[in-house]
Amino acid sequence: MAAAAHPAADQNPKPRDAELHVPAAETEPEFAEEEYEEDGEEEYEDEDEELDGPAAAAAERDRVQSVFKRLSSDPVAIRVHDVVIKGNTKTRDELIEAEVADLLRAAPTVQELLRAASVATSRLHRLDVFDAVKITLDAGPPELPGTTNVVIEVVEAANPLSGSAGVYSKPEARSWSLEGSLKLKNLFGYGDIWDASGSYGWDQTTEVGVGVYLPRFKSVPTPLMARASLSSQDWLKFSSYKERLLGLSFGLLSTMNHDLCYNLTWRALTDPSRASSKAIRRQLGHNLLSALKYTYKIDQRDSLLRPTKGYAFQSTSQVGGLWDNKGLKFFRQEFDVRGAVPLGFYNAALNVGVGAGVILPLGRGFMNSSSPVPDRFFLGGHSSPVCSLSGLSSLLGFRTRGVGPTEARRLVPSESDSDSAAAPGRDYLGGDLAVSAFADLSFDLPLKLFRDAGIHGHAFLTAGNLAKLSEGEYKNFSVSEFQRTFRSSAGVGIILPTKLFRVEVNYCYILKQAEHDSGKTGIQFSFSSPM
């Protein structure tokens, strides 16, 4: 904040020509040449006398110290008279005002205004359409003492087009994928971001999509999103089907804790191998999925890659079959709760979490109907349960979709086959009820080189189980049997955190598995993202 002239003694002191530069949310404001009169009694003598050299520098330091002393001792009342926006040649004024104007005008003191300006700068940067943001506090009209004008200067992105591409590996599936995306920012001046993305995975998945994101539109106070996508997912190795999806998704509500979206998807399940089990064959063909999905999320952990304290909770509810009598009808509910506690030695922390989910078909005689296989719960895979709030499916030591109810595949004799035939294998069908839990103890390694790089160790224990409830199987469900058949694994490993993801090298030991589960004791690699 800066003032270039000495204010006269008023009952309501105010800053004049004050500047506040906040380049980032964490930046402390810099003050210079600012003077506040305390109780209207402080006067500077010999104002007409010009100082130069060391004397001028000393006077300048005294003025700055006076400002800091006043701001640190008592609140300084102030009122925002106007918010002025500069530098936006394409971005509309109403977008910037909607993001920050109310926040700035609500500040009753200089101290609160400084904090509000810091938050406002962070909000404008999050729009991802500005290269730089500067907020300046200028003097208000002379006839309105104790007021200020807030000047917001933005520098719009020099190149609105950006892109990225990369090759990513999935060790648990022994596959690679090529992914790329293009973004066009602020095309119409509403902070709109248009994107096109595509990915190609060898023997796994292919997806292309286009979408648009609006942080605000007209009087709608929350971001809006729309996306069209076409994808193909190969589950032949695990469940003997390929899944193709053509869909539209619309983000209806998005805040810090709430997210509501609608999906309209045309789904096709096929079996090129013609060897799928009866349970899979009954679900092959085309279906329409019209679903509403609501997510409530709280995450108070101090880190997503290595939490040492705090808690997190997520609840996801999905209803399928809206406005369509012939589409897939089901209700799906999932909970995930976890917490981290510091232990006070070697920077150790204990992370524990529990997840549970259930899916039920809807309609007449729903408990005797079948739930859609792609929407069921599956356990297994090598992703870490610690990072994100989607850890319900993670069960270290077990292959992807390697746990739960199975059914034998159909035997398809080979034309050149002799009398003997190889075992047809089994399809993993997933479960209508899922429960999983984990405990993870992280700790620093003794070598300083590792500690400086953030490399640390951990010991873990994971457990989970699946059960089928649809098609009348709820009659055979037993809580005691469900508890007795819990799968579990334990192990130790080394974690290499990066800015984007968490790499784990683990030794997993299978404590308990069922007859047809696909679990393996040994070294496993894990690449997990908190997103």
What does this structure look like?
By secondary structure, the protein is mainly β. It folds into two domains: 67-156, membrane protein fhac (Ubiquitin-like (UB roll), Roll), CATH 3.10.20; 161-408 and 427-528, Porin (Beta Barrel), CATH 2.40.160. The chain is built from seven helices and 21 strands. The strands form three sheets. It has a 16-stranded antiparallel β-sheet. A three-stranded mixed β-sheet has the order 1-3-2, with helices on one face. Strands 15-16 form a two-stranded antiparallel ribbon. The chain starts with 53 loop residues before the first helix and ends with a strand. Belongs to the SAM50/omp85 family.
Structural features:
2 domains, 13% helix, mainly beta, 531 residues, Bac_surfAg_D15, 7 helices, Ubiquitin-like (UB roll), single chain, Porin, three-stranded mixed beta sheet, transmembrane, 16-stranded antiparallel beta sheet
